[in-house]
Write a structure and sequence with these properties.
- The complex is a heterodimer of chains A (243) and B (248).
- By secondary structure, chain A is α/β, with parallel strands linked by helices.
- Chain A has helices at 47-54, 77-83, 98-108, 115-124, 141-153, 171-188, 199-205, 232-242; strands at 7-18, 21-32, 36-40, 62-67, 70-71, 84-87, 159-163, 191-195, 208-213, 216-222.
- Chain A is 35% helix and 26% strand.
- The mean pLDDT of chain A is 92.
- By secondary structure, chain B is mainly alpha-helical.
- In chain B, helix 2 runs antiparallel to helix 3 (28-55).
- The chains are: A alpha/beta (243), B mainly alpha (248).
- Adenosine-5'-triphosphate (ATP) binds next to helix 1 of chain A.
- Chain A: One of its GO terms (molecular function) is ATP binding.
- Chain A: Residues 9-239 form the ABC transporter domain.
């Protein structure tokens, strides 16, 4: 048996600059395949930027990223992006209906998404079936985020990047999403990386956690590390968040 | 018309200058520059045309067209400064539009292959193409900026750059074509087109002037559509890199 850990995404000495501004600093680490990893850290730490790198929307200025042990640049960008699904916190919608948005990934691939399939997806993310024909402009922030997750799931990604999905959700929706994340992970073996501001959730649901600050990966390991952080900065951050 | 009577026409420049001053519109400087430029440029063109018609040689026609395309490119490129290689894309577009329209006109013997026809028609075609390029580039660059999120959303879901930019491209093409299509609907009702008016004043038969104007109108519609679409399809790939990432 190969004792090596199965890595979904691995970073080695990854830095990202926006012009002369360094946004990510020498990130080295990996996300375990088939697990739920939470990504936490103060605003502006570079979490969203890290996701954009994984989905191939941007490339590292320095360092390498591998997805399933293959260099990210070896993938066809469209194939990579379908396989490493991204649902951003902004939950950008194209104008039109919820159905139009759910169809989008299939339309882009020249395929169809039936209304039945779309309805199943909606119920999966905890939305009502008859939302399908609603205009996206009529949705609440939480509903948009759910539609955004459903839309990303249409591509059946092997790795799912969820950006701060719960921050604009109420308690009930948050529980829905929690259950959804666990189900996607357990039933389909999808690797999930989840940016959250809720540390209790991170401890409860995450197998692993990454703590990022000012563009650096400060501490990572099993989620329980949030209970007893070694790094002084992480300690302060955790105390500030949990209280 | 003598130069003396023409100088009396400067009264028509004094009126807007006066209005701009009293109403503090701040347009005096631009008005004066525009007036001086138009006098110099048009007079120069007049003398050059006299020479070209008299010389009656193909090379001079070609030189005139090159000059027009150079000037049009110079004017339009500022609007597309954010698009890499915009200068050459404009040149290619103008050359193509010019070749297409003259090819059809001369090929089908609609107009004779003479300087007297080729030069003014080329001027209108290239001038129109330039205006369209500016309208298109203005709108396209604005659309790209305001739709960055949507463009990246489509990319992030596995769309190609072409799919990602499609909406911005179509919107900009449509928007740039609206003014010309709209103005053609009311043409003749509200205003007589400049060229036709000019011909009638110079003593041409109105019906012949109308026929000629119609030809020009159709020509300009083709020019407009071809310009926007061609420029659009030449431009959008430079917004992305080979990794299908939207550049800043
Ligand atoms: N497109 C961009 N252009 C310039 N700077 C950017 C851009 N995107 C992000 N940044 C900068 O990069 C840094 C990291 O941003 P990022 O969005 O990755 O942080 P984050 O951890 O996701 O924050 P938040 O928790 O607020 O979402 C910030 O300083 C931000 O200002
Ligand atoms: Mg973020």
């Amino acid at each position: 048996m190969n004792q090596q850990i199965d890595k979904a995404i691995e970073f080695s000495q990854v830095s990202y600059y926006d012009g002369s501004l360094q946004i990510l600093k020498n990130i080295t680490g990996f996300f375990r395949k088939g697990k739920i990893t939470t990504l936490v850290g103060p605003s502006g730490a570079g979490k969203t930027t890290l996701f954009r790198l994984c989905n191939g929307l941007i490339s590292p200025t320095q360092g390498n990223i591998t997805v399933n042990a293959k260099d990210i640049n070896q993938y066809d960008p469209t194939e990579l992006r379908r396989n490493v699904g991204l649902a951003l916190q902004s939950a950008t919608m194209l104008s039109g209906t919820v159905y139009d948005n759910l169809k989008l990934p299939r339309t882009l691939a020249g395929e169809m998404l039936t209304e039945e399939e779309a309805e199943i997806l909606l119920t999966k993310v905890g939305l009502d079936k008859d939302m399908l024909k609603r205009k996206v402009t009529d949705l609440s922030g939480g509903q948009r985020q759910k539609v955004s997750i459903a839309r990303t799931l249409v591509n059946r990604p092997e790795i799912l990047l969820l950006d701060e999905i719960t921050s604009s959700l109420d308690r009930v929706s948050r529980d829905d999403i929690e259950k959804l994340i666990e189900r996607i992970n357990k039933e389909f073996g999808v690797t999930i990386i989840w940016i959250t501001h809720n540390l209790n959730q991170a401890i409860q649901i995450g197998d692993d956690t990454w703590v990022m600050m000012k563009g650096e990966l400060v501490e990572y390991g099993p989620s329980s590390l949030l209970l007893e952080p070694k790094d002084q900065r992480v300690k302060q951050f955790v105390e500030g968040e949990i209280k | 018309m003598s130069f003396l009577t023409l100088s009396l026409a400067l009264v028509f420049v004094l009126i807007p200058l006066f209005l701009s001053k009293t109403l503090k519109l701040g347009l005096e400087k631009d008005t004066i520059i525009a007036t001086i430029r138009s006098i110099i440029q048009l007079l120069a063109v007049g003398y050059v045309l006299t020479f070209v018609f008299a010389a009656d040689h193909f090379i001079y026609i070609l030189l005139m067209i090159i000059l027009m395309i150079t000037a049009a490119t110079h004017n339009a490129r500022k609007k597309g400064a954010t698009i890499r290689g915009i200068t050459w894309k404009l040149v290619i577009t103008f050359v193509f539009v010019e070749a297409l329209t003259q090819g059809i006109l001369i090929g089908f013997k609609i107009t004779p292959a003479e300087a007297q026809y080729i030069i003014p028609i080329s001027g209108m075609v290239i001038g129109n193409s330039m205006v369209l390029s500016i309208l298109f580039l203005n709108r396209f660059t604005a659309e790209i900026e305001s739709r960055r999120d949507e463009t990246e959303l489509i990319l992030s879901l596995g769309g190609t750059p072409k799919q990602a930019i499609h909406y911005s491209l179509i919107t900009a093409i449509k928007a740039s074509l609206i003014p010309i299509v709209e103005s053609q609907k009311t043409i003749g009702l509200v205003q007589l087109p400049g060229m036709m008016s000019g011909q009638i004043i110079a003593g041409a038969d109105p019906i012949q002037a109308v026929q000629f104007q119609l030809l020009i109108l159709f020509l300009l519609l083709t020019t407009a559509a071809v310009t926007s679409i061609m420029l659009g399809f030449l431009s959008y790939p430079t917004l992305f890199n080979t990794r299908m990432q939207l550049l800043k």
